[in-house]
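Predict the structure of Dihydroorotate dehydrogenase B (NAD(+)), electron transfer subunit.
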Amino acid sequence: MLKKIISNIEISSGIYKMVLEWEEKAFPGQFIMLNCGGRTLLKRPMSICDIDKKILTIVYQLKGEGTKNLSKMKPGDSIEITGPHGHGFDIFKNKKILIVGGGVGIPPLLYLTKELKSEKIYIALGFRSEIYLIDEFKKYGEVFIATEDGSHGKCGYVTDLIKDIIDDIDIIYGCGPKPMLKALKEMAIKAKKPCQISVEERMGCGIGACMVCACKIKDKDNFHYKKVCKDGPVFWAEEVEI
Ligand SMILES: Cc1cc2nc3c(=O)[nH]c(=O)nc-3n(C[C@H](O)[C@H](O)[C@H](O)COP(=O)(O)OP(=O)(O)OC[C@H]3O[C@@H](n4cnc5c(N)ncnc54)[C@H](O)[C@@H]3O)c2cc1C
Ligand code: FES
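Done. Here is the predicted structure for Dihydroorotate dehydrogenase B (NAD(+)), electron transfer subunit.
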């Protein structure tokens, strides 16, 4: 389907926010596939950062040719999109929530945080240096920040922020780079807290047809494979091998 771009601006160094016209329903943690044009043949997966009435927002980082093309698109341009795809986060009501996000794993957690509508939400966000989306998250909970260079919040990793909080919460949701998810999974298991994480894998089709995105799932003492695009990207931390 073709969607019209409403705005596409740089909100932090190399980080862009694109706002699009949108009619479809989608759940937090689901993603869309975008045709970025130029010589890129495969569509690129991007998480849904927010949906508000008939508007969808994505936040993306410049990586290669696809995202570079995306960043040059202007308001009024149309873009070919499929989705929403995948299995998103499960929403648990009336719980004390901990949200843990790192880098470009942060955008999908905004829509989740908004939809949780929980009274107590701790939000721990980790960045390399420049921060973004902070004011948006502050509307829904208490925000803690870590940067690797110490320019904002605590100097260090996002997982350093949650050591004193983790025992007090009911459920954890996380999204971010693999090393962060691995550390979060270990902390959640140690603290005996249920934890859902959104996993990132390279994608071909985005609909379960090509097996490019296979991930390992623990099966008692054995393993089997699932597809991140269709069965995920959200899994229980305990079941997925990171
Ligand atoms: C479910 C999901 C949600 C995502 N959400 C976001 C988001 O909200 N914001 C954001 O900035 N990035 C997100 N990504 C990563 C984003 O898809 C890649 O950064 C982007 O595809 C890079 O494309 P490129 O052409 O600029 O880079 P290139 O490196 O030129 O891409 C080459 C190929 O690799 C694939 N690829 C490269 N890196 C990744 C990656 N990390 N994950 C999956 N495929 C990759 C591309 O689809 C393409 O087929 C998400 C990835 C997945 C799987
Ligand atoms: S991307 Fe093709 S099966 Fe997942």
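Residues 216 and 222 are 10 Å apart (CA to CA).
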